[in-house]
Amino acid sequence: MDDVLVNKDELEEKMVEEAFQHLIDSYLSTKHRKKVEIITKAFNFAKHAHKGVRRLSGEPYIMHPLAVAQIVSSEIGLGSTSICCALLHDVVEDTDYTVEDIENMFGPKIAQIVDGLTKISGGIFGEHASAQAENFKKLLLTMSDDIRVILIKIADRLHNMRTLGSQAVNKQYKIAGETLYIYAPLANRLGLNTIKTELEDLSFKFEHPEEYSAIEKKLEATKAERDTVFDEFTAPIRAQLNELGIHYEIKQRIKSPYSIWRKMQNKHIPFEEIYDILAVRIIFEPNDIQTELNECFDIYVKLCKIYTSHPDRLRDWISRPKANGYQALHVTLMSHKGEWIEVQIRSRRMDEIAEKGFAAHWKYKEGDKTESASEHELDKWLATIKEILDDPQPDAMDFLDTIKLNLFASEIFVFTPKGEIRTMPAGCTALDFAFTIHTFVGSHCIGAKVNHKLVPISHKLNSGDQVEILTSKSVRPTHAWLSIATTAKATTKILSILRKEERELRKKGEAAFDEFLKNNDIVKDSLVIDKICKLHEFSKPELLYVAIGDGKVKLGQDDIDELKVKEQAVGWKRLFSFGRKSQSKSESKGSGLFVVKKDFDKKQVISLTDETVQSQYSLCECCKPIPGDDVMGFIDDDKHIIIHKLQCPIAERLKANHGNRVLAAKWEMSQMSLFPVSIYIKGVDKLGLLHEITQVISQLHSVNIRKLEIEVNEGLFESRIQMYVHDTKEVKQIVASLRNIPDVQEADRL
Q1: Dihedrals φ, ψ of 334, to 5°?
Q2: Together in a domain, 105 and 137
Q3: Which of 307, 340, 356 marks a domain boundary?
Q4: What three-state secondary structure class fits 52?
Q5: Buried b (16+ CB within 10 A) or exposed e, 543-559
Q6: Count of domains forming the chain
Q7: What's the rounded Cα separation, in Å, for the pair 264 and 421?
Q8: Is 341 found in the same domain as 237?
Q9: pLDDT in tens, 518-560
């Protein structure tokens, strides 16, 4: 037995040393300064600190910091400082060593970054939303000081996602939810396209393994066909590029499984109707950095001599890079077989920035001290983050959603009256633009002139619009503005102004309330306050005070009459009311919700049977899960378990924000229970079509139709049908049959 243990220790030691050597070899192959000594020192220190500790997978813990350091070096392209921080990122959190120890051994910069990583350890999100928001603020503040903190944190999350299989299922849902909610958008915003895509695909794989596997199999089955299309389409392109005498390579870009699935969900179409799975990427070596822009357009002109270009699908991200540094020229061409195929034209520098983000940009920046457009956009984004942090929101969910607003947004370019260009998220309004100019301009915005035409503040802007903001000192933000604003900056500023005004009104209203009681010889206590709140139909005193301060509530004789009830009677009535309320609540909860016991094991997979769904758990009304859906349980504030579909928008927020209250769940239903579903159908209208649809549902599949809505417009029909089914398998069979009806173009479950 001892020999076996010794042999295992030797094998693990060899595995660790090989991983470290691979890290050093890949680092030495980069253009970074060769600071091998400090990296070796950091490795040995981390190895000693984590000695004897293992991950859930069973491997030595040091393999995780090594893997994170490898990602930081090879996949993000950072240098020795970041590699050292990656190796040391868990030392302060998991061992007895302190930040001061790190500073003494490795200097202040490495200590500062490790300290930033330690403050946001364990994922961004904690047990409670308030703690979660504070951790997220720490992350953003530290990122503002040194962006390498978030880059290393993203690398840490990527390795955790790659090894997520060793975690319990409820933890998988929690971590995958956090990843999709924040980490993938952050990776996207920082230009880490390859990592962003992998994070999305891994989250998709763990949350919806069957759908992921099905798409993977279909991609593999259609690979030969795509290869043929690619070869035939690119053959004449290669001939033209050879004439130009440039060095280039042409690659296929295949749409990721997650992107395909999202498009299937959003457009209600099957895999077979996703037509942009294949794109072509041309990567060339420019003659000179000063001429690469012209060379991109030279290639574009050559392509247009071979194929017809789509007039509305030219995307020039070269002259004006995206805010995350992305540069490329996108053109969509019609192949000789009648298929639209997107071609992305990039220089080698642009390609590396597109995949590795700003880290690659900095590498190319060495020796050039001028600030590029992409650097300027990053600075503006970080400045916006700082503005939001300077004016924090009390509600954690609002805070996170506000930050997240612009992480994934596509961009448009808008001009000021003087011709200055501003980058804005797609879908933004005139009100959003007003707040980019100045808070005063935004808060007094009354309308705008877009391309010299008067428009309301809710008008959505398009790329190329010239916008002049109109203001009035008599105008001030209202709660309705929150539904108009789409950017993080505008939303934060509006909320800040509204909160400030409400504070002033509340103070003024409470003073008026106190004065009213004093003038009528009424002692202020909780019973009196509750009475007045109830009379004016307010749920809490703060809202009453705001209404009084705003003049919407006038205190008078009705209030005095209401309060002239003996205190004892008031107390008795409140007690009676409370008892009835409690009874009602328990009655409503007891029939369909299971109260979680204190010793409930959150790691266990809860079983959804005919009996438990009726008596213990509640199926969420927002997404209406049915047997066969990928689902999770969630323990709400009242300690009851609610069942959500994993892709339900509310569930996505819950996984990310309250991951420790998420439970794994599985269906074990008989074919006895029926569940409501809705199916959407669209197609070309014709005589008898409705009869064919109902025949398929009612007679072919013997399913009862609960509700049917149909609308015909200019020869096209749209229909929504509600019915009762046993499971998702039955829904898929019905949808497949509906799609086989001639003139039905779309059919899918809503």
Answers
A1: -90, 120
A2: yes
A3: 356
A4: coil
A5: bbbbbbbeeebebeeeb
A6: 4
A7: 36
A8: yes
A9: 888 888 887 888 888 888 888 888 888 888 888 888 888 777 7
Q: State the virtual CA torsion across 532, 538, 540, 545 in degrees, nearest 10.
A: -70
Q: What's the DSSP call for residue 182?
A: I
Residue 86 and residue 27 in one domain: yes
Cβ neighbors of 463 (< 8 A, separation 6 or more) are: 412, 413, 414
The amino acid that residue 431 corresponds to is L
Nearest Cα to 563, choosing from 536, 514, 529? 529
List pLDDT tens digits, range 412-446: 778 888 877 787 888 899 999 999 888 899 999 99
Q: Which residues are within 8 A (CB) of 737 and not within 5 positions of it... i.e. 6 or more apart?
A: 696, 700, 701
Q: Which of 138-142, 146-150, 241-245, 620-624 has the lowest mean pLDDT?
A: 138-142
Which amino acid, one-letter code, is at 100? E
Coil vs helix vs strand at 255: coil
Q: How far apart are CA 678 and CA 723, in angstroms?
A: 6
Provide the terminal-to-terminal Cα distance of the chain, rounded to the nearest Å. Answer: 59
Phi/psi zone of residue 49: left (φ > 0), alpha (ψ -120 to 50 degrees), beta?
Answer: alpha
Gap between the Cα atoms of 24 and 43, Å rounded: 11
Q: Are residues 666 and 680 in the same domain?
A: no
Q: Which amino acid is at 384?
A: T
| Catalytic residue positions, numbered | 93-94
What does the pLDDT read at residue 87? 94
Domain that holds residue 71: 2-192
The answer as to whether 347 is a domain residue is yes
DSSP-H helix ranges across 520-535:
526-535
- Partners of residue 423 on adjacent β-strands: 413
Token pair recorded at residue 406: 């612009």
Q: How many other CB atoms are there within 10 angstroms of residue 5's CB atom?
A: 9
The dihedrals phi and psi of 321, each to the nearest 5 degrees, come to -65, 155
Nearest to 319 by CA among 345, 298, 293: 293
Residues 240 and 303 in one domain: yes
CATH code: domain of residue 694: 3.30.70.260
Residue position matching structure tokens 């998702």: 728
Closest by Cα among 683, 693, 690, 674 to 735: 693
Instruction: State the amino acid at position 181 in one-letter form.
Output: Y
How, if at all, do strands 340-347 and 411-415 pair?
A: unpaired
Together in a domain, 241 and 340: yes
Kindly state the DSSP code that residue 640 receives in the 8-state scheme. B
Q: Are residues 574 and 689 in the same domain?
A: no
Cβ neighbors of 585 (< 8 A, separation 6 or more) are none
pLDDT by residue (tens digit) across 639-671? 888 899 988 888 888 887 777 888 888 888 877
